[in-house]
Amino acid sequence: MSFENQNTEGATAKAIEEQTSKLPSDLFLYAALAAMGTSLTLKCLGRKHTALFVGQWASPFLLLGVYNKLVKLEGHDAEDKTVNG
Predict the structure, then answer these.
(1) What is the CB neighbour count within 10 angstroms for residue 7?
(2) Do the beta carbons of residue 71 and residue 21 sit within 8 Å?
(3) Distance CA 13, CA 8 (A)
């Protein structure tokens, strides 16, 4: 009995992976740090609600960075390289 993974990525997922893999992973880390710094600045300026709003951007930026790294390591192009290479 063979348990080969016969699921393939759809055209939309491949298109997203191709675009996101072009971005450097550091970009998302810097964006998260910028969001935290901006949030701190806004908090010091007394803009409490805006600071909370901007501060919540850090987690999605870091999550996008993890997705970006996974796409680069395990995306459809990694499978295509092993099949064709």
Answers:
(1) 6
(2) yes
(3) 10
The two structure tokens encoding residue 24:
């450097």
Decide: pTM greater than 0.85.
no
Angle of helix 25-44 versus helix 58-74 axis, rounded to 10 = 180
**Cβ atoms within 10 A of the Cβ of 17, count?**
21
Which are the contacts of 28, defined by CB distance < 8 A and separation ≥ 6? 61, 62, 64, 65, 68
Tokens of 1: 């009995």
Q: Are 22 and 34 in contact (CB under 8 A)?
A: no
More confident residue, 9 or 13: 13
Residues ≥6 apart with Cβ < 8 Å to 36: 55, 58
Give Cα 18 distance to the centre of its chain.
13
Mean pLDDT for all residues in the chain: 83
